[in-house]
Amino acid sequence: MSITNFWSGVPQGPPDPIIGVTDAFKKDTSPNKVNLGVGAYRDENGKPYVLESVLKAEDIIHQKKLDKEYLPITGDPDFLRLSAELAYGKDSKPLQEGRIAVAQSISGTGGLRIATGFLAQFYPGVKDIWIPNPTWGNHIPIAETVGLKVQRYRYFDKKTIGLDFQGMKEDIANAKEGSIILLHACAHNPTGIDPTQDNWRELSETIKSKKHLVLFDMAYQGFASGDVTRDAFALRYFVEQGHQILLCQSFAKNLGLYGERAGTFSMVVSSTEEKERVLSQIKRVIRPLWSSPPIHGAQLVKTILSDQALLEQWLGEVKKMADRIIAMRERLYNLLVELKTPGEWGHIKSQIGMFSFTGLAPEQVDELWEYAHVYLTRDGRISMAGLNEGNIQYFAESLSKVVKGELKPKSSL
Ligand code: LMR
Fold it and tell me: Which residue numbers delimit the Aminotransferase class I/classII large domain (predicted)?
């Protein structure tokens, strides 16, 4: 008797638009290869960087010889308190009044999954979630998985390579009353373009008048400006204005805890009693997903945030990472100008955070992969953190060539 094959009908899935870039990069054997795909910080030698404050926290944790018991479903209480203080500010009114429900998440993705899962169940009658165009690729499948309907608001203006603020505001104003509006709190991924503080103020008014519900995704606190308080402006302003926001907070980038999967999901609610009810349902979203969260990343975060010396060291390191990226922006801009690259490249300097949106077409990206061994996502996004003194000249030359149409070898024309 032949053995039954159950899976012959499973089709090949497409590569992930971001993680697939790393896979392709790893397979490339060229000594010149450059990976500007995934948003993961690299030091000045192009190496993954473990923060000194994190290494010290690891030593402290190691010496404590902690057990490996399960955490509560919503996570480590000290981690939750300290994370919320970092995001909302210690003086946040709803925080002081005990009106913020917080749960530990599997980094930003897990936070978004809790948020959308909760909304799909407890925000009755509303299915539309408005997401910027473009946005982080994972937002869409996360929302669709739970049955939310993704709508797009205008964000990026191709002509100015800047923010289409009027378009954004109009689309949000025209969305059905009470819609869910997803906002990147800072360092918008993939464009590196954020609303100004005045823009945020206007958006707050528009959103309030339409009774929309805001979901903030904050994956880059500290990475945009080097200052964690400044980067929390939009979130804190909306909270001050009385919006009952939802927040997904990730420690992947600002603490370099990518694979540790540390983050939180939180909601501003109207009373401590409501907080308890909401938390009881958040638990029911989490339990069938991952039951209870991982320990180690949360231990690292709470060790750093609760120790003044470590906290200061970490803040210095965030600034150092942000400053290195800003320096690379300046260098890249100057090189592109020196190389007489057609077009206006000022946006490389004005964009903020980990990414730059180059404006390259997908075919130009394909040429960079194939002929220069330079890997970036097909939307033309580059991770500035992947650039360093060792590869920036080569990258600028490759970019300049592809824009001039000179990268493809003549024989293949
Ligand atoms: C990115 O956008 O590159 C990062 O947020 C990593 C990821 O998981 O996509």
Answer: 32-399
Of 56, 253, 275, 302, which is the active-site residue? 253
How far is the centre of ligand 1, averaged over its atoms, from the C-alpha of 180 (Å)?
22
Distance CA 369, CA 377 (A): 10
Contact between residue 71 and residue 253 where contact means Cβ atoms under 8 Å apart: no
Q: Is 21 in the pocket of ligand 1 (CB under 6 A)?
A: no
Query: Among this protein's residues, is 275 annotated catalytic?
Result: no
Residue 349 sits at φ, ψ, to 5 deg, of -80, -35
Give yes or no for residue 265 CB within 6 A of ligand 1. no
Tell how far the Cα of 383 is from the centroid of ligand 1, in angstroms: 10
For ligand 1, the distance from its centroid to the CA atom of residue 39, given in whole angstroms, is 5
Q: What is the CA radius of gyration of the chain?
A: 22
Active site residue 136: yes
Per-residue pLDDT of 111-164, as tens digits, reads 999 999 999 999 988 899 999 999 999 999 999 999 999 999 999 998 888 999
Cα–Cα distance, 211 to 225 (Å, whole number): 30
**How many Cβ atoms sit within 10 Å of the Cβ of residue 371?**
15
CB 107 within 8 A of CB 296: no
pTM for the whole thing?
A: 0.95
Q: How many CB atoms lie within 10 A of CB 330?
A: 11
Q: Give the count of beta carbons closer than 10 Å to the beta carbon of residue 405.
A: 11
CB of residue 345 inside a 6 A radius of ligand 1: no
Whole-angstrom Cα distance, residue 153 to residue 131?
Answer: 6
Mean of per-residue pLDDT scores for the chain = 95
Which atom number of ligand 1 is nearest to the Cα of residue 136?
Answer: 2
Number of H helices, E strands in the chain: 16, 13
CA distances from 304 to 70, 79, 92, 299, 332 (A): 22, 10, 21, 9, 34
User: Would you state the structure tokens that stand for residue 245, as one six-digit string?
Assistant: 């926001």
Q: Is the dihedral of CA 192, 160, 143, 211 positive or negative?
A: positive
Q: Other CB atoms closer than 10 Å to residue 324's CB: what's the count? A: 20
